[in-house]
């Protein structure tokens, strides 16, 4: 499990009022932030996630790096739609937040939502990529909303980063469609390791939310793949399943530990008798 500190940057520009993603570009991001937080903290209990915006007068840190989703939720409630996005400024502020992480052993990662036209030129993006790479900061980009407008520029930008290993960077482009934004992001390398992605492609999603929806006990048995399903209900079902899986894993680990201790104690008692 990768030990990681992640800053999530949401696009809160005026473009986020658009309703081409359910229920809007802005709300679709907020739902996805919760999935990102759950995936990151469930993969390693020492992982931390922070949140910030990049539009308006200047980027604003809504929540410092934390394991408490309540702080993230409070930050989401205080954010608002305003102005134009400032991609480079937002990423630079995120770098400062990561630099102040308490555990310096944590890898550094930035996940940024880009839902409005990227105004920065290629030279500025190249210089930013060089700075991030020098400081071993990985970057994941969720390209949606104005995805065709930004695709070429973002592909060139992300191509300057490492593409393999635990510190790989990713570009995920999500077009408008019947599926929810968080569902599509949840099926990508941003939140999944290679084994999970292979299982999805083979149709064996199981607890990992496979694409086929045919796995016994998989979350899509509950209608998670139904585009007409209430997004809030879908989120509640997903999180409930994740919490139940986490509980089962902890119980199994506790049982194994207790059995090992029992064997060790019986061995000590036998040695004393001898």
SS elements, strand count: 6
Q: Write the H/E string, N to C.
A: EHEEHHEHEHEHHH
User: What is the CATH architecture descriptor of the largest domain?
Assistant: 3-Layer(aba) Sandwich
Overall morphology: globular
Average pLDDT, to the nearest integer? 83
Low-confidence stretches: 204-229
GO cellular component, one term: proteasome regulatory particle, base subcomplex
Keywords: Proteasome
Protein name: VWFA domain-containing protein
Organism: Pichia californica
Q: Can you walk through the features of this model?
A:
The chain is α/β, with parallel strands linked by helices and 274 residues long. It has 2 domains: 4-191, 3-Layer(aba) Sandwich (Rossmann fold), CATH 3.40.50.410; 204-274. It contains 8 helices and 6 strands; from the N terminus they run E-H-E-E-H-H-E-H-E-H-E-H-H-H. It has helices at 25-43, 69-78, 87-99, 122-134, 147-158, 181-185, 194-201, 231-273; strands at residues 4-10, 48-53, 60-66, 107-114, 137-144, 170-174. It has a 6-stranded mixed beta sheet, with helices on both faces. A hairpin with a 6-residue loop joins strand 2 and strand 3 (60-66). Helix 1 packs antiparallel against helix 2 and helix 4 crosses helix 5 (147-158). The longest helix has 43 residues, at 231-273. The radius of gyration is 21 Å and the shape is globular. The termini are far apart. Belongs to the proteasome subunit S5A family. Residues 5-188 form the VWFA domain.
TL;DR?
The chain is α/β, with parallel strands linked by helices. It has helices spanning 25-43, 69-78, 87-99, 122-134, 147-158, 181-185, 194-201, 231-273, and strands at 4-10, 48-53, 60-66, 107-114, 137-144, 170-174.
């Amino acid at each position: 499990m990768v030990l990681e500190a992640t800053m999530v940057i949401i696009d809160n520009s005026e473009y986020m009022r658009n309703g081409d993603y359910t229920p809007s570009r802005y709300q679709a991001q907020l739902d996805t932030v919760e999935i990102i937080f759950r995936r990151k903290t469930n993969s390693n209990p020492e992982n931390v996630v922070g949140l910030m915006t990049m539009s308006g007068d200047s980027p604003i840190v809504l929540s410092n790096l934390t394991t408490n989703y309540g702080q993230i939720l409070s930050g989401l409630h205080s954010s608002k739609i305003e102005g134009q996005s400032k991609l480079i400024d937002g990423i630079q502020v995120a770098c400062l937040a990561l630099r102040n992480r308490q555990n310096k052993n944590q890898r550094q990662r930035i996940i940024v939502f880009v839902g409005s036209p990227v105004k920065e030129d290629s030279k500025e993006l190249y210089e930013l990529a060089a700075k991030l790479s020098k400081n071993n900061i990985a970057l994941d980009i969720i390209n949606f909303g104005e995805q065709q407008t930004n695709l070429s520029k973002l592909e060139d930008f992300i191509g300057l980063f490492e593409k393999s290993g635990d510190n790989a960077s990713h570009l995920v482009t999500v077009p408008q469609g019947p599926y929810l934004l968080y569902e599509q992001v949840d099926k990508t390398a941003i939140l999944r390791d290679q084994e999970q992605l292979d299982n999805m492609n083979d149709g064996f999603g199981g607890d990992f939310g496979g694409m086929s929806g045919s796995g016994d006990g998989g979350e899509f048995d509950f209608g998670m793949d139904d585009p007409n399903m209430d997004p809030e209900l879908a989120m509640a079902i997903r999180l409930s399943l994740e919490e139940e899986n986490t509980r089962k894993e902890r119980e199994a680990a506790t049982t194994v530990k207790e059995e090992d201790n029992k064997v060790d104690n019986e061995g000590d008692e036998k040695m004393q008798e001898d």
